[in-house]
Amino acid sequence: MTQWRDDQPIFLQIRQRMIEMILNGTINEGDALPSVRQVAAELSVNPLTVTKSYQSLVDMGMVEKRRGMGMYVTEGARTALLVHERDKFLTEDWPAIAARIAALGLSAKDLLTDGDDT
């Protein structure tokens, strides 16, 4: 069973999974996304939740609807997603990470070692 985080709506978590599948090449540009019903059944969520996540990808320009055929990853989506995800990381995630590093007094050397002091 899928574990959902409480800090973010499920449709955004599903969207993020699809983004990760595009970025890691599980789904390539020009490929169809899994059907809404298939994803809903696999994740035990309402099909409307999956539809909302897919629509969000359409709104971002990463996916296009093909009437009667389904949803397909657009050409250039992977490159655009890399830019989007990098920007999101640097503006949303990194400041909190950097603050935590500073609060713990960690150096670049500390971060680059595997934790083994030998």
From TrEMBL:
Keyword set, alphabetical order: DNA-binding, Transcription, Transcription regulation
A single GO molecular function term of this UniProt record: DNA binding
Annotated protein name in UniProt: GntR family transcriptional regulator
Residue ranges constituting the HTH gntR-type domain according to the UniProt record: 8-76
Alphabetized Pfam families for the sequence: GntR
Coiled coil: none
InterPro entries: Tscrpt_reg_HTH_GntR (IPR000524), WH-like_DNA-bd_sf (IPR036388), WH_DNA-bd_sf (IPR036390)
